[in-house]
Design brief:
Elements: E1 2-6, E2 12-16, H1 21-26, H2 29-33, H3 37-53, H4 57-80, E3 84-85, H5 88-96
Antiparallel strand pairs: 1-2, 1-3
Helix pairs in contact: 3-4
């Protein structure tokens, strides 16, 4: 499922919530293409280090772990940069997935 986040400048980003199939199949490249250089570099370094010691198996395991966590990390960083959910439905999805806290 996808949600939309917007910043005060009017830039809207549509982001998938949940498992990242693109990260599963392509490793650090989705983060790189999104412009998330910090996490692309972190994933690349972990995959390179773990992969070199385990004949590539460590890189695959790293990819699987990040497949479950990367979208959540990316959304949280967008929120820290000032992006907010566009609609009430988007906010509810983020709350259901424990990405943002319930409104008090």
């Amino acid at each position: 499922m996808k949600i939309k986040l917007a910043n005060k400048g009017g830039v809207v980003k549509e982001v998938k919530v949940g498992f990242s199939w693109t990260t599963f199949f392509f490793g650090f490249f989705p983060a790189l293409f999104r412009g998330d250089l910090k996490w692309a570099l972190i994933m690349f370094i972990l995959e390179a280090i773990l992969g070199s010691f385990t004949l590539g198996i460590g890189a695959w395991i790293t990819g699987v772990v990040f497949s479950f966590t990367y979208n959540k990390i990316y959304i949280k960083e967008l929120i820290e940069k000032g992006y907010t959910p566009v609609s009430h439905e988007d906010r509810a999805i983020l709350q259901e997935n424990d990405i943002i806290a319930m409104a008090g």
